[in-house]
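Incident log entry.

Two folding requests arrived from the same account within the same minute. Monitoring flagged them as a possible duplicate submission, but the sequences differ. Recording both here for audit purposes.

Request one:
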Amino acid sequence: MMKKMAIITSYFDGESYGLLGPQMAATVIQENTPYECIVIAVTHSDDKTVLKKALSGYFGREMPIVGFSSLSGREDLFLFAKALKAEGAVTILAGPQSDVDFSGETGWRDYPHRFRGLSECFSFALQGPAEQAIPVLEGIANGQWRNASGLLYTDDEGRIVKTPRQSWKNKFLRRVRWNNLYRVGRAGLENPTINSGQVLQHIGCPHAARAKLIEVDYPYHLDKKGDKKIRLKFRGCSFCDVSSDKGFYGALNSETVLSQIACLPEDSDGRKISFELINENALPGLPLLIRESSERGMSLTQINLTLRADWFLSNENYLREALHMARKLRMRIMLSSIGFESFDDRILRNLNKGLTVKTNIDAILLMRRLKNEFPLQWAYSNRDGANHGFIHPTPWDSPETDFNIQQVTASCRMHSDILPAHSVPLIIHHASGLADWIREIETSEKMLFERYVSVIGWWREALLGRY
């Protein structure tokens, strides 16, 4: 008789996308353990009372085992997990940053204002590949789950115990069930229509493979002259939690990627739904991927790419080859996001983007040229649904940087096709590179900055004072 498990994850209202990470984890669990496993996508507006009732109906008399993954820092889901745990459920924190979010911010025992972690909300955390859940679930009944890899839990003394995690294995990354995603509806759990999916090709980001020593400026509101700096070593972008969580594991083999594509649902015309190819340097292998998909009888509609501006420019020839193939196959390639982040060189340096404003502008000009050459096969603009990265405000905004950004965006007419409707403020997760920067400033200047659950405030109003 099948036992039951559910994975709860964050979602946005009105959307219809799949969730590769949680759905792949649920697939691994269902196909390798005696547990049925579903994924429940929860928005901010979902009534937690209705969700709790739906969980009760799903589990029946079974002991609830509920995983939580990709929570996007949402306190409402942390508190929901804590309530379930208090009622006897096994609650598991998994997914990106689960280890550091469970154990808390660096130095929180010495600095009470820092993020204390989520060990009170969850029975334990599981960091790394989903297959590590197999021995955990097998050991829950007899208490042997603590022997599994990738675990974090508190011992009888309240200390956090951490077991080494396993490396990624291709064989567990080939299958994804796309019918295991549910939303909370009026009648209980309901399968949504999924219009776009994801395919994993790279684990982590190649930019995170290189360590670089840089000097990061103080926030402008603390040093208007720009003289004070903090010297730190970063891997990847200084704000990125992926670089600190996964770094760069590498590429999956082509059989694994093609197997994932084969698992994607089909639309009414029998073509695979559009999907994001998770690989920030996808262009060199894109023509081969399209060719092999076609040779295996898989008809694609659209591949969405998230790329760096410099790698986009340096691999133009591969993209052109892929676009010529797309024309023959009647499919489309969309550059759904480039992480421009800023159009000021000082801010880009502090973000450790590894590129310049000129690189960003050259990328925009190439995007527009390709649209003229491949009007039906190429998409890149905000009108097509692309959402390019633009971080604002940042700690280093000044009249000078504001002028620079406004001058560049106006001269390149970016509002018409590049800039998103709303910029994203710089978010500093407590385990990102910039979190070390904030803590260095706190120590050097004897200052305290507010914590907003797992996020550190950097703005003037977040300054709690001096000690």
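Request two (distinct sequence, not a duplicate):
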Amino acid sequence: MESAKLAASEIEELEKTAKELRRKSLELIYRAGSGHPGGSLSAADIVAALYFGVLRYNPKDPKDPARDRFILSKGHCTALLYCALARAGYFDESDLADYRRIDSKLFLSGHPHPKTPGVEIATGSLGQGLSVGHGIALASRLDGLDYRVYVLMGDGEVQEGQVWEAAMSAVKFKSNNLVAIIDYNKVCQDNLTRDLKDLEPLEDKWRAFGWDVMRIDGHDMGQILDALRAPPHPEKPRMIVADTVKGKGVSFMEGKPSWHGVAPSEEEYKKALKELE
């Protein structure tokens, strides 16, 4: 019973954290006058679980060799990433005021920059993150370290051919310390994913490529934690297909391609914050 209470308490705390990340991400985008709210909101539960329930890291030593690695392959959702990094202690929350400013001393740009504390690689050219993640996973074996590599991908990104080259390579080299997560919100920049290149049957595709596959509700914190904390497969990389909602938590943004990469007006921002209270 005590462990059940602890689990419930942790889930509740992470759900609160995810909601705070949503609010803060929207604030950054609103104040900058640009950014990507839809995908930041859809991935907030996953990022909250990773940074505050799963990843091993030391914000005082961002290059600690033993750290787990996280790659935001869907690199346009930096508002969410920077809010998580600030909350995790990599830099002060006041630095977030420089989001998307050309003179940002921490390089808090529209896509991740490796000069930002806590950022592993530059991303945003979609389709590259899984390849890099696999390379880092191989490096752990060469260095004799036991860290895990987590790559968060967008569903539109999975339409890129390089993703499937990486998928084959990771299986070939039995990179079982590699965990990929697809933020499967089913909405791309200007259309529904299925109307561009339908990804289904998505689980079957990854299994056919030799991955250990899980499918979860990407807004159910218990399911997210269970999937991320599951022991590694003896020799297969893991794919977590997380069903999510683009713009999650803000009714007028949910499921709308038009909210992929546009900042809310003052009125829209206030309405969104009220819904996220």
